[in-house]
Amino acid sequence: MIGQAAEFDYAGTQACLALKEEGYEVILVNSNPATIMTDTHIADKVYMEPLTLEYVAKIIRYERPDAIVPGLGGQTGLNLAMELDEKGILQKYNVQLLGTKIDSIRRAEDREDFKNMMLAIGEPCIDSVIVHDVQSSVDFANEYGYPVIVRPAYTLGGTGGGIAEDEKQLREICADGLRSSRVHENLIERSVAGWKEIEYEVIRDGAGNCITVCNMENFDPVGVHTGDSIVVAPSQTLRDPEHQMLRSASLNIISALGIEGGCNVQYALSPDSMQYYVIEVNPRVSRSSALASKATGYPIAKVTTRIALGYTLDEIVNGVTGQTYACAEPTLDYVVLKFPRWPFDKFVYADKHIGTKMKATGEIMAIGTNFENALLKAVRSLEMGKDSLVTPSLEALTDDELETKLHSIDTERSFVVAEALRRGVTMEHIHEITKIDIWFLKKVQNIVRMEQKIRALGSMAALDAETMMAAKKMGMADSAIARFVGCKTADIRMLRERLKVLPAFRPDKALDIRKPDFPAMT
Fold first, then answer.
1. Closest Cα partner for 257 from 114, 50, 461?
2. Which pTM does this prediction carry?
3. What DSSP assignment string belongs to 424-459?
4. CB atoms closer than 10 angstroms to residue 396
């Protein structure tokens, strides 16, 4: 499936290399020839076969492996492990399952078991019901009211799910979800769309030691799948009491589930109080794990693999630093931002609206010293021909059309917000419509004001060192600045060199993460 390719290739490649470093013979099963992990030097044997019970069972019968490690193969890996166990294939061929055990996977993935466990340990869950037929979901919605969210069990990227605003939508989404679910099961829950969506990446070993690797916050509120939302790490709008509350909850949850390895916990947090709900837990290395690994320098997949082999966190050396151990929680003094990449430049007639069912087929990551810097770097990295938050097609809209667009949750949301701010729409009005946190709106407004300041100068000659430095610290591209003042990009570059506004590294920070035998940065 196209949406699974790159994120899980990152984890799978790390897992294969970690296993080989420990002296194991590695047999890889992957149907995707475009992945790095299917290169011949990554695994000892590569089977490019369909990821179905029938084919994997044949490979097990032929190869007779001692163990399998399913937790690094995304939702597909977990589902296959569950099927192999249920059909008795693992027991028949004496194959040990390493990492998170079957019971723990079932508790996290089965919607009813998960809800019961959360209630048992005192973690709040949204009012919901488990259904195996469409009518039961309609009965729940009639009692609790619309909208409701449909979350199928054992699926990836919200496949088969969605938000239903009325009975007709609910019947359609619920039927699709039941078809998509491996166990023909949906969770129907009361919608808390508009609340903040927060994620914690947590890791635990077999001895019960656990740490939080990274916390992340979605630009979009609950109602948009995290894979389709801009995500920033670390969380930007949380106060310390809120962070500590959710961090403690994450450690309680991973311990109660008995997960061994990486795990992702998602929360809905009220923007007006300390109230929160646990949305779901991914008992595996996930798409967010790849982001968290790259953001923090903590190799989650490698650590998860070694935990599966029996190591504890205090025995695993961090391969990035070469000095610290995996039991040390990373700290970030910079901002990491993930921006989704949708395929609508190729599928021009497809529905661009986004919701709880993921549509992005990739994502980019940008690092900056502030949110504005990271956001503008991310926009330039999308390979969509954009160098700023300015979009000509949105500039051509009337005010009424733009207002309508603000109510639409689609792939242009961040650009629509910027255009609305340019036209003087208040942040309070935008927040009322979109429920995007005021803090994020202020950051977008900072970018818009810098655009307007540069435009107001009227010419390149009016650009001074102070304004140029402020624009570049905000991540503004030379090409965008040139367009705003009506000159060539090369002219802006030469002006920066004259004004000594140049990019710089932070060698003091860079040296901290290098092994002693590496040459110093100059």
1. 114
2. 0.86
3. T--HHHHHHHH---HHHHHHHHHHHHHHHHHHHH-S
4. 9
> CB neighbours of 261 closer than 8 A, spacing ≥ 6?
71, 99, 100, 203, 204, 284, 285, 303, 304, 305, 307, 308
SS3 341: strand
What's the rounded Cα separation, in Å, for the pair 129 and 131? Answer: 6
Instruction: Collect all residues with Cβ–Cβ distance below 8 Å to 341 and sequence separation of at least 6.
Output: 360, 361, 362, 363, 364, 382, 383
From the CB of residue 37, how many other CB atoms can be counted at a distance below 10 Å?
Answer: 23
pLDDT in tens, 45-87: 999 999 899 999 999 999 999 999 988 888 888 889 999 999 9
Cis, bond preceding 70 (omega within 30 deg of 0): no
Instruction: Say if residues 25 and 46 touch (Cβ distance below 8 Å).
Output: no
| Cβ atoms of 409 and 387 closer than 8 Å | no
Contact 341, 361 (CB under 8 A): yes
For 406-425, how does the pLDDT look when each residue is reduced to its tens digit (9 = 90+)? 999 999 999 999 999 999 99
Q: How far, in Å, are 84, 135, 344, 370, 427 from residue 437 at the CA level?
A: 44, 36, 27, 17, 9
> Tokens at residue 422, please?
């340019």
Residues 6+ apart with CB under 8 A from 521: 505, 507, 510, 511
Q: How far apart are CA 119 and CA 265, in angstroms?
A: 16
Cα dist from 74 to 10, 70, 223, 501, whole Å: 11, 8, 22, 44
